[in-house]
Specification:
Length: 188
């Protein structure tokens, strides 16, 4: 068995598998994590089931650092290779629609297996992640420009609000209610 760093090809394979499971999870459809690991074994010939399991936890850590959804059954493990961040960035670049959805929106799914509850370490007085997570979370944020994405999301929200106000004013004017159209205000 190989214990060295994961290659880009290996990272790309496991990241794609992770997002396949995450898509099922977010849709509320059942999936089998153990079967996913077993299916990866022939593709990652030099990796054990345990190392694949741990790499899935590393991917959760990268996604947590991005503020994205992650598989609750894979507790984030923050001691990952930075090449894993590159693999997640590649996957997101190849699948841009993924970032177009609203993170943190898991559908209500009736009788779904309860997710494990993991509270995590107690908060620090400085309101920062625990020291072992901080360095890698900062790396992820720098690498993928989380602040830039947040600003683009805010700009999109502002543009949407502006469009709704313009639409409402226009609809009122078409209906012959210029008096009401002048009273439409943008407040947020």
């Amino acid at each position: 068995m190989l214990n060295g760093p994961w290659t880009d090809e290996e990272n790309d394979l496991i990241v794609a598998d992770y997002f396949a499971m995450l898509a099922e999870d977010l849709a509320g459809r059942p999936y089998n994590k153990a079967q996913h690991r077993r299916n990866l074994m022939p593709l990652l010939r030099s990796r054990t089931e345990g190392s694949i399991e741990f790499k899935h936890q590393n991917i959760s850590a990268v996604l947590k650092g991005l503020g994205e959804d992650w598989i609750l059954g894979y507790k984030p493990a923050f001691n990952f290779q930075t090449t894993l961040v590159d693999a997640v960035a590649r996957w997101l670049a190849w699948n841009p629609a993924w970032l177009g959805r609203m993170p943190g929106t898991r559908p209500a799914t009736g009788l779904r297996e309860a997710a494990q509850i993991w509270i995590g370490p107690p908060p620090t007085l400085s309101n920062q992640p625990p020291p072992q997570e901080l360095e890698q979370m900062l790396y992820v944020a720098k690498k993928l420009d989380v602040a830039g994405r947040d600003e683009r999301n805010r700009a999109l929200g502002r543009a949407g609000e502006e469009r709704v106000v313009a639409h409402e004013r226009s609809a009122l004017k078409v209906a012959g209610r210029d008096d009401l159209a002048r009273k439409v205000r943008w407040v947020s």
